[in-house]
Inverse folding.
């Protein structure tokens, strides 16, 4: 779990940042209210940051009305950057040691409303990158619009800034989800048996990341036939390059590079004795810290990671270099992983993905076992 760590004397304050996003009429406002109530009961100070676009539209500033569409996106980006920094600065000053910031949408939501060229211009104008934006939020909670549901619960009555039809809502929901594709912790919240179940899932994801009652990594893992290649993926995907280096204290440092921009983390994992479930602690580190720790590594590996969404589930497909083929005798190793909030969750594997077998909990397929010793 990535968190902002602030030193206060001899104590360490943790500030957790969650982006709540999704399509129109997805339940964001109710979800944030549920999260806030639950976390308040657990002793957290919860700070909610309202959506910038809705505020601008409600105040009379509209795209292609009072301003051009691109200028409207500029206003959103500029205002959101300033607002996020202001709320984070406040969070750093409060005395409470457990602070959660809930963002009603994040910076990459704007990508869903831009042409690709416009988004690139915005990133350049504000000296940002997709990777740098990902680092601003510890997890992305994407709620699917009610327009995907089978009932008549979709409505725009509760938000005067929204006018989308069902078809438009579905399209925007997909574009928003694709905008966040590639984030290390992206959770897709489906429309479930009832709205109450959907909200319970939202709260459960947040508690999972906060480590209530403990910070667990829950995932399932599968071996994919080594003949599979990127060209066979029929859905939107994001590719990143990963280097992992393992230290003598059992921790791992990672460099994850996307679009020429790298982010660095250090992770500790410990077994719980349960198949597919481990205790995990993760923190952001600087490039300088990464390079120093990398020099102390006892083993290392490189892989290409492909992130995509299929049937409302977020998958990570890792392509290992051929020297890691020790676990799969017939060629290069490809592993499919999915992060879950419950080990009992049913995984809906894409029919176009040639999965050979499930290897959840098989130590032979742990990355540390696949890493190569350094001379």
């Amino acid at each position: 779990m990535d968190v902002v760590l602030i030193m206060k004397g001899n104590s360490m304050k943790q500030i957790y940042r969650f982006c709540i996003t999704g399509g129109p009429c997805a339940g964001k406002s109710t979800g944030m209210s549920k999260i806030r109530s639950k976390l308040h009961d657990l002793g957290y100070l919860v700070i909610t940051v309202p959506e910038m676009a809705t505020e601008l539209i409600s105040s009379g500033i509209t795209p292609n009305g009072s301003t051009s569409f691109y200028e409207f996106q500029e206003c959103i980006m500029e205002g959101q950057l300033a607002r996020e920094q202001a709320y984070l600065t406040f969070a750093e000053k409060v005395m409470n040691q457990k602070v959660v910031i809930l963002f009603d949408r994040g910076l990459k939501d704007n990508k869903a409303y831009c042409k690709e060229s416009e988004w690139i211009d915005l990133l350049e104008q504000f000296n940002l990158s997709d990777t740098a934006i990902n680092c601003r939020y510890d997890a992305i909670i994407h709620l699917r619009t009610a327009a995907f549901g089978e009932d008549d619960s979709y409505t725009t009555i509760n938000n005067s800034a929204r006018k989308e039809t069902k078809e438009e809502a579905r399209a925007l929901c997909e574009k928003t989800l694709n905008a966040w594709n590639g984030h290390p912790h992206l959770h897709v919240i489906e429309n479930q048996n009832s709205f109450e179940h959907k909200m319970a899932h939202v709260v459960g994801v947040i508690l999972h990341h906060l480590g209530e009652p403990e910070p667990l990594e829950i995932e399932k893992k599968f071996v994919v036939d080594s003949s599979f290649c990127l060209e066979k993926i029929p859905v939107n995907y994001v590719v990143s390059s990963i280097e992992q280096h393992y230290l003598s204290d059992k921790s791992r440092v990672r460099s994850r590079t996307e679009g020429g921009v790298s982010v660095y983390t250090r992770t500790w994992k410990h077994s719980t004795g349960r198949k597919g479930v481990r205790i995990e602690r993760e923190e952001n580190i600087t490039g300088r810290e990464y390079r120093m720790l990398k020099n102390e590594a006892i083993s290392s590996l490189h892989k290409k990671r492909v992130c995509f969404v299929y049937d409302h589930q977020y998958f990570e497909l890792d392509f290992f270099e051929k020297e890691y083929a020790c676990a799969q005798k017939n060629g290069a190793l490809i592993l499919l992983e999915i992060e879950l909030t419950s080990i009992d969750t049913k995984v809906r594997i894409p029919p176009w993905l040639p999965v050979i077998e499930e290897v959840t909990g098989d130590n032979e397929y742990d990355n540390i076992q696949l890493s190569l010793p350094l001379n």
Observations:
- The two ends are 31 Å apart (CA to CA).
- Residues 53 and 76 are 6 Å apart (CA to CA).
- The longest strand covers residues 261-274.
